[in-house]
Amino acid sequence: MLRRLYDWTVSLAMTKWALAALAMISFVESSFFPIPPDILLIPMIIAAPTRAFTIAFVCTVSSVAGGAFGYYIGAELFDTIGQPILDFYHKLDAFEEFKTRFNEQGHWAVLFAGVTPFPYKVITITSGVTELPFWTFMLWSTIARGFRFFVVATLLWFYGEPIRNFIERRLGLMFTILIVLLIVGFAAVKFF
Whole-prediction pTM value? Predict the structure, then answer.
């Protein structure tokens, strides 16, 4: 089954809809969807290495736009949902203290979440909730997401065929590593 899913993803990478699918996945992953765009980004670049940087660019722009939507979710829904809950539990003061601390160092959180397997959507929503300055958020999101996707594109562009062979020979291992990274990312959310 895993082999069929991989083959399907690689075949999708060769269709005219591939960039649109990647853009959609990148957008929703940055605001609420749990699956990272790498699941489509990597096979797309492996299937079409000459388009590696175009693919990374589309992924970056869509991810940052999705991050802006996540920021909006945090900024707009907090007043109607989050604030009454914090007020009910008498934690509004504690949140104000957290908000101040986050905004002092929030750009580092955006950079960290944008580059690592840590769920980026958590930081996009948190940035909106805490009112991290929007343009600061956008700048660091663009740097982090661009770095992440262009590093992947560069590595696959240079070493695409050996990496493709490695992935195809060790598909089960690669899938396991991806799942472990997702679990670690979600565990980190609970820890913080």
Answer: 0.76
